[in-house]
UniProtKB/TrEMBL annotation:
<dbReference type="GO" id="GO:0042910">
    <property type="term" value="F:xenobiotic transmembrane transporter activity"/>
</dbReference>
<keyword id="KW-0472">Membrane</keyword>
<feature type="compositionally biased region" description="Basic residues">
    <location>
        <begin position="1"/>
        <end position="11"/>
    </location>
</feature>
<feature type="transmembrane region" description="Helical">
    <location>
        <begin position="447"/>
        <end position="467"/>
    </location>
</feature>
<dbReference type="GO" id="GO:0005886">
    <property type="term" value="C:plasma membrane"/>
</dbReference>
<keyword id="KW-0813">Transport</keyword>
<dbReference type="Pfam" id="PF01554">
    <property type="entry name" value="MatE"/>
</dbReference>
<keyword id="KW-0812">Transmembrane</keyword>
<feature type="transmembrane region" description="Helical">
    <location>
        <begin position="314"/>
        <end position="330"/>
    </location>
</feature>
<feature type="transmembrane region" description="Helical">
    <location>
        <begin position="120"/>
        <end position="143"/>
    </location>
</feature>
<dbReference type="InterPro" id="IPR002528">
    <property type="entry name" value="MATE_fam"/>
</dbReference>
<dbReference type="GO" id="GO:0015297">
    <property type="term" value="F:antiporter activity"/>
</dbReference>
<feature type="transmembrane region" description="Helical">
    <location>
        <begin position="84"/>
        <end position="108"/>
    </location>
</feature>
<feature type="compositionally biased region" description="Pro residues">
    <location>
        <begin position="15"/>
        <end position="24"/>
    </location>
</feature>
<feature type="region of interest" description="Disordered">
    <location>
        <begin position="1"/>
        <end position="35"/>
    </location>
</feature>
<feature type="transmembrane region" description="Helical">
    <location>
        <begin position="155"/>
        <end position="180"/>
    </location>
</feature>
<feature type="transmembrane region" description="Helical">
    <location>
        <begin position="416"/>
        <end position="435"/>
    </location>
</feature>
Length: 477
């Protein structure tokens, strides 16, 4: 970025606390760090609601892709579902780095160290760009082998590779947008990303059919059109979020030289971000493991699982919003040494999450079949997906407990638990349970669905106990 006209701040300057743009006047900045002083319930609502609304539209964005994929063919729909764990690897690493940057920036702001916060913001962006280049290269080289392991061949494999090659080319935009949002999350501003996700949804609704079926000078591209539309939306989001990151004031006094890679900030971001990234990466690997076992039951089962995941994601949106609120509030209050507010944040987020997840579970159980018929007219796909969703309705509360407790530990700079529980929940336990139930006991798909339920609840119970103990341990005597 270009040098600012503002003079560089020193430690003797008045400390600019967390800056949240005034909705009525975006260019004026509020200078009160109320994330460490305002009532916790109020702050949870202020952070969670915009995140949840934004992610609702992000999920609906994916739902639109799934809908149009189903219009192309069942094979196209299955190919997109098969591509999910591969693409999720990119998202997981970017999200992990962003989580680490958010925690470090939030702790610096809570501790009234704006220069440190600015340095981590710049270096987080630079780190994300470098990582994206490596991921694109590795992804293109390994994708054919991964898809073959999942049972794709001939036309099925060709569609998977066509779809993913375009997404790999846009990797830098997927990760850059997460790094920009990390800065906004650290200052408690979740509205901007929400606005982008809403606008991105409507833009995708226009671009998907245009690129898939062609017209107005654009050739019909089929599945490739869905991928291209996704990349173009991310490019637009990078520009929009970049403008608003500059407006936060956090980068004031910075120069283009602060984007140059530096070993110490990279190492610190990696130390806090890679455990979070590995946690999310284990989710990608976990989806890979699940898809591997499901693939043995044919394309119909893979397509049903892909559709079911999209439906499930909609009902998990409040949990993801609470995850962001937990991380932001606990990181800031940990930096400010407001330990009483850390405990209250965890308690309130778990309470709100349990209530919303219970309501979502009831809705999912009662309307499972209707949800499935929105995306597929294939009766076999609908039947398999309905069974999956009814069992998943029992798991939503477990996801909330797990997400909130892991975010709380990340906020107090104890990220390694996320890796351990992720390895257990996504890889070790699923492989053992699924193999036993499907290959030895021959329970079939039901063994996979019930296995997911049992493993998730076990992980949630472990996370709850561990988080409570670690937070109690940092409380002053």
């Amino acid at each position: 970025m270009q040098p600012s006209n503002h003079r560089r701040k020193t430690r003797r300057d008045p400390v600019p606390p967390t800056v949240i743009p005034d909705p009525a006047a975006p260019d004026r900045r509020r200078r009160s760090n109320d994330l460490t002083t305002a009532p916790i319930p109020q702050l949870i609502r202020r952070i969670t609601i915009p995140v949840s609304i934004g992610l609702f539209f992000n999920t609906m964005y994916n739902v639109v892709d799934t809908y149009f994929g189903g219009l192309i063919s069942t094979t196209a729909l299955a190919a997109m579902s098969l591509s999910l764990p591969v693409f999720f690897i990119i998202i997981s690493i970017g999200s992990g780095i962003a989580t680490g940057a958010t925690a470090l920036i939030g702790n610096a702001l809570g501790g009234e160290n704006p220069g440190t916060a600015r340095r981590f913001a710049f270096q987080g962006i630079a780190f994300g760009v470098l990582i994206s280049v490596a991921l694109a290269f590795i992804g293109k080289a390994s994708a054919p082998l991964l898809f073959r392991l999942l049972g794709a061949d001939e036309a099925y494999l060709s569609i998977c590779l066509t779809y993913m090659d375009i997404l790999f080319n846009g990797t830098v935009f997927f990760i850059l947008i997460q790094m920009l949002n990390a800065v906004l999350n650290a200052v408690g501003n979740t509205r901007i990303y929400r606005n982008f996700l809403i606008a991105g949804f409507f833009l995708n609704v226009l671009l998907d059919p245009w690129f898939i079926f062609g017209g107005w000078g654009v050739p019909a591209m089929g599945v490739a059109g869905i991928a291209l539309a996704t990349v173009l939306v991310q490019v637009t989001g990078c520009v929009y979020l970049g403008i608003h990151v500059r407006r936060t004031g956090l980068l004031d006094g910075g120069t283009i030289r602060e984007l140059l890679p530096r070993a110490a900030p990279f190492a610190e971001i990696a130390r806090h971000g890679f455990p979070a990234g590995l946690n999310i990466l284990t989710i990608a690997i976990g989806v890979f493991v699940i898809t591997y076992f499901i693939s043995g039951f044919g394309q119909t089962a893979v397509a049903a699982y892909g559709v079911g995941m999209r439906v499930e994601q909609i009902l998990l949106l409040p949990a993801i919003g609470l995850n962001t609120a937990t991380l932001t509030l606990i990181a800031q209050n940990h930096g400010a040494r407001r330990f009483d507010r850390i405990r209250e944040t965890l308690r309130k987020c778990l309470t709100y999450g349990t209530v919303t997840a219970s309501c979502g579970g009831i809705t999912l159980f009662l309307l499972a079949e209707r949800f499935m018929t929105l995306f597929s007219k294939d009766p076999d796909v609908v039947a398999v997906g309905t069974t999956y969703l009814k069992i998943e309705a029992l798991v939503l509360t477990a996801y909330v407990i797990l997400f909130v407790c892991v975010a709380a530990l990340q906020g107090i700079k104890q990220p390694m638990f996320a890796v351990v529980i992720g390895l257990f929940r996504q890889i070790v336990a699923p492989f053992a349970v699924f193999y036993t139930l499907t290959r030895i006991q021959d329970v079939g798909l039901l063994g996979i669905w019930w296995g997911i339920c049992a493993i998730t609840w076990t992980a949630a119970a472990i996370a709850f106990v561990y988080a409570r103990r670690r937070i109690d341990a940092i409380m002053p005597e």
